[in-house]
Amino acid sequence: MQTDRPEATKPARLAVLVSGSGSNLQALIDALESQQLPGAQIVLVVSNKADAYGLQRALKHRLPALYLPWKQRAQSEQQLVALLRLFEVDLIVLAGWMRIFSAEFIEQFPRRIINLHPALIPDDGSGATFTSSDGSIIPVFRGMHAARQALEAGVKITGSTVHYVTPEVDAGPMLCRQEVPILTGDTEDKLQERIKQVEHSLIVEAVQLWMRTA
Ligand code: GAR
């Protein structure tokens, strides 16, 4: 028998971690304010940069927002763990967060840290190549400047992936992903901007998927 009951989801108190403009944080705020993420709320925004515009976005929407200096990783991670526990965070969303966490930090939040990465990452996160929808085999661009890496490699398709964070950088299992074609005349900025347009719905979808995962 079919019912009209909505799919069960778990509640999600989100911490969103940013290092820069925070347009993906904004996408989450907009989705929450337009009821696209029932059961979710942003309880904390953290930036490792004092002047990150993401902090301003959070404050405009009256969200708790903190600058956490990141000079000594072990100390900063300890402070972050305390904050995440204090705010009873269920899911940590890395939305343009440009710092690498230690394995010790990650192990404290199994399947509770997701990262938005501006390139295509395979389903299980591993491997050096990815087969795109048109059958072409492209390298997996991990780490910094993924859009630049795609342009330099001369590939025709790149994209963005939301994946679980594991100790190996940009190599955790995928939650969702979308391709972005590379166009003639693309510069790094133009490509990065088109990737971001896709990411603004991808990050919302990722939180929805996470909430539906038992
Ligand atoms: C996004 O494109 C995200 O994929 C990327 O930073 C941008 C942040 O944009 N993340 C990484 O490169 C992580 N290695 P935003 O600050 O406007 O949301």
Task: Report what the structure shows.
A 7-stranded mixed beta sheet has the order 3-2-1-4-5-8-9. Strands 6-7 form a two-stranded antiparallel ribbon. The protein is 33% helix and 23% strand. The protein is globular and about 45 Å long. It starts with 11 loop residues before the first strand and ends with a helix. It is an alpha/beta fold and 214 residues long. It folds into 2 domains: 10-109, Formyl transferase, N-terminal domain (Rossmann fold, 3-Layer(aba) Sandwich); 117-198, Rossmann fold. α1 (23-33) packs across α6. The chain binds glycinamide ribonucleotide.
Heterogens: glycinamide ribonucleotide
CA distance, first residue to last residue: 23 Å
CATH top level of the largest domain is Alpha Beta
The CATH superfamily of the largest domain bears the name: Formyl transferase, N-terminal domain
**Total of helices:** 6
Which labels suit this protein?
EC 2.1.2.2, Phosphoribosylglycinamide formyltransferase, purine biosynthesis, 2 domains, globular, two-stranded antiparallel ribbon, 23% strand, binds glycinamide ribonucleotide, Rossmann fold, Formyl_transf_N, phosphoribosylglycinamide formyltransferase activity
Q: What's the arrangement of secondary structure elements?
A:
Layout: E1 12-18, H1 23-33, E2 40-47, H2 53-60, E3 65-67, H3 73-86, E4 91-94, H4 103-107, E5 113-117, E6 129-131, E7 137-139, H5 146-153, E8 157-164, E9 174-181, H6 188-212
Parallel strand pairs: 1-2, 1-4, 2-3, 4-5
Antiparallel strand pairs: 5-8, 6-7, 8-9
Helix pairs in contact: 1-6
The structure holds glycinamide ribonucleotide.
